[in-house]
Write a structure and sequence with these properties.
Helix 2 runs antiparallel to helix 10, helix 3 packs parallel to helix 5 and helix 3 packs antiparallel against helix 9. The chain is mostly helical. The protein has 16 helices and no strands. Helix content is 84%, strand content 0%. The protein is globular and about 60 Å long. The protein has one domain.
Length: 453
């Protein structure tokens, strides 16, 4: 019980706490973003069709991450709140039921991926090379998806107790293994067979599985505040419902991104497969900017949830203000990088053809206009989740990606052509900014302001 009272999330100065909680996650997320880019860099050397196939698989990868991360948000919020309330039994139930939900998700995706991967690609394109490459890639990453689900779940358990350094180690190791194996398995180096796109998928799942093993070790040996064991486990309905009360809106919110990506790919394929490849490359590049912000979120969320449970208003507001300042600053750097370095990035990282450059350079410059605004909106969404109101995050995400972005992109594509499609992103982000500000003010008035100082 003494260890619970001294948890750093309730006593450490907020600036130092946020940095120590977030910096390891931000660094590990940067490594994750790096291996995402490296993945596509090597695949791009095979052919533009191979790059397009991996890009078209991205919505399914995003969906898996959405479900695992969204469930993790629910686990994280319940765990941190329970620890803030000194309720160890509730925290242990949250951890064990979260692991159970991850295992169920693995089984579902393995079945869907094994039987539905080819259908997914034939719904998007009739190019046989893209379909074949894509089916190979998607089948492997879904059938062997245990790595991604279990890795994220165990990392959330460490994050909930403030031990984010170990997440940096596990994510970093998994990403480095992926980066090393990519060229070996794609091109058949050092006696390995040349597996091409399938090699990229195998490298990815290998890194994830090794990271899971290390995460399990850290949770068992370093995370003493919670106790994970499925030996005598029985699903607890109340705990699962509480996890999904916060997590389900987050799952739906992040899954909307998969729907948006699928829809944008369909719109862009009206023009050419190169346009879809540019969109896929954009997502790889922007992850290098957004991932550190998501790492900041991962450090911020348990701080807010813990102090909400402990009824410490000032620590909550200080955390939010500092997080917004850091997030927007990161996004400004990203904006400058995309404005002045788009051509360099496309040409030197992805061997972009003249046609891809003519489409990609203006696309990256236009889309990146919304980065600083997105910095605020991302933090606001995580605040909603940390305070147990994930529905607000769902509302803002659905408004931005489904109600505004896709319809505007389709209308601009039909009326003005490909060059106008990219303006849908800044337009949608402005709508998200307005709605996020309104809801943030409301949740502060109803939930944060009444707390004791």
């Amino acid at each position: 019980m003494a260890e619970q009272k001294e948890n750093k999330m309730g006593v450490m100065p907020v600036p130092r706490l946020l940095i120590t909680m977030s910096l390891p996650m931000m660094l590990s997320m940067l490594v994750q973003a790096l291996y995402n880019i490296v993945d596509s860099m090597f695949v791009a050397k095979l052919s533009e069709e191979a790059l397009t196939a991996v890009s078209l698989a991205f919505p399914v990868q995003t969906l898996m991450i959405s479900i695992s991360s969204g469930t993790g948000v629910g686990i994280n919020a319940l765990l941190s709140r329970s620890l803030g309330e000194k309720n160890v039994q509730s925290a242990d139930r949250a951890a064990n039921n979260g692991l159970f939900l991850a295992i169920v998700s693995c089984i579902v995706f393995a079945i869907l991926g094994g039987f539905g991967s080819r259908l997914f690609f034939t719904l998007q394109t009739d190019n046989p090379e893209i379909v074949e490459y894509g089916t190979q890639y998607l089948s492997i990453i879904t059938i062997f998806c245990a790595g991604i689900f279990l890795q994220i779940t165990f990392e959330r358990l460490m994050q909930s107790t403030g031990k984010t350094f170990y997440n940096m180690v596990t994510q970093g190791l998994g990403a480095i293994i992926n980066i090393v194996l990519d060229p070996i398995m794609i091109f058949g180096l050092f006696g390995f067979p040349r597996l091409e796109v399938a090699g990229a998928a195998i490298a990815t799942i290998t890194g994830q599985i090794i990271a899971v093993c290390l995460s399990i070790f850290f949770n068992q040996t370093r995370n003493k505040e919670i106790h994970v064991s499925l030996r005598h486990f029985k699903p607890h309905k109340g705990t699962i419902l509480t996890i999904y009360k916060v997590g389900l809106p987050s799952i739906v919110m992040q899954s909307i991104g998969s729907v948006m990506t699928f829809g944008m790919n369909k719109i862009l394929l009206m023009f050419s497969s190169t346009a879809a490849a540019v969109f896929g490359v954009y997502f790889k590049l922007q992850s290098f900017i957004f991932m550190p912000v998501f790492g900041l979120n991962n450090g911020m969320t348990p701080i807010i949830a813990y102090n909400y449970g402990a009824r410490k208003k000032k620590r909550i507001t200080d955390t939010i203000r500092l997080s917004v300042a850091i997030s927007v600053s990161i996004m400004v750097v990203g904006l400058l990088l995309f404005q002045f370095g788009a051509g360099f990035l496309l040409k030197n990282l992805f061997d972009a053809s003249d046609n891809m450059l003519s489409i990609g350079v203006p696309a990256l410059r236009i889309i990146s206009i919304h980065f600083p605004v997105a910095g605020f909106c991302i933090i606001a969404g995580s605040v909603f989740q940390a305070l147990g109101n994930g529905v607000y995050s769902l509302i803002t995400s659905a408004t931005r990606q489904l109600i505004v972005l896709l319809p505007v992109a389709f209308a601009f594509a039909s009326l003005f052509g490909l060059s106008a499609v990219w303006w849908a992103f800044p337009i949608a982000e402005v709508a998200s900014l307005i709605l996020s500000a309104i809801l943030l003010k409301r949740i502060y008035r109803l939930q944060v302001k009444p707390l004791d100082n």
